[in-house]
Design brief:
alpha/beta, Rossmann fold, five-stranded parallel beta sheet, two-stranded antiparallel ribbon, 42% helix, 21% strand, globular
Length: 142
């Protein structure tokens, strides 16, 4: 069994559902969801409470982040998360962009953040590709 928790940040309920199903197909059951960057940052900022409430399921190992969202979009999230990540010592937490945008400009912009480890295009993502992308972050549970 693979042990890993993730956070899905996307304003589209259908996209969150599809990704969550693909994650579950890969044995990942601990999935947190937020529907915009602001609520996701607020969730992460509640670090102490989350550790008490979720134990070793928190913090998430990977955050799947959409770009186009209301309130705080993906790129603004990355800026704010960069500071929060350092303040809360969340170096083990990485981001995979999860967007419908195939624009090279968006891919380059995201790659400027060292903690962004991949850029996944929603329509192209399959459970098999997801398994391959997550493999470096998975730990085995005995």
């Amino acid at each position: 069994m693979n042990k890993m928790s993730v956070l899905v940040v996307d304003d589209n309920e259908i996209d969150r559902y599809i990704l969550s199903r693909q994650l579950k197909e890969n044995g990942i059951e601990d999935i947190f969801e937020q529907n915009d960057g602001e609520s996701a940052l607020s969730f992460i900022a509640q670090h102490e409470n989350n550790v008490r409430q979720y134990g070793d399921k928190y913090p998430p190992v990977v955050i799947f982040l959409d770009i186009n969202m209301p309130i705080i979009g993906g790129f603004d999230f990355l800026e704010k998360f960069s500071t929060l990540r350092e303040e809360l010592s969340l170096e083990s937490c990485v981001i995979m962009m999860y967007s419908s945008s195939e624009r090279e400009e968006d891919k380059r912009r995201a790659s400027k953040f060292s903690f962004v480890k991949d850029y996944l295009v929603k329509g192209d993502l399959t459970p098999e590709i997801l398994k391959e992308k997550l493999a470096p972050f998975m730990t085995s549970e005995s």
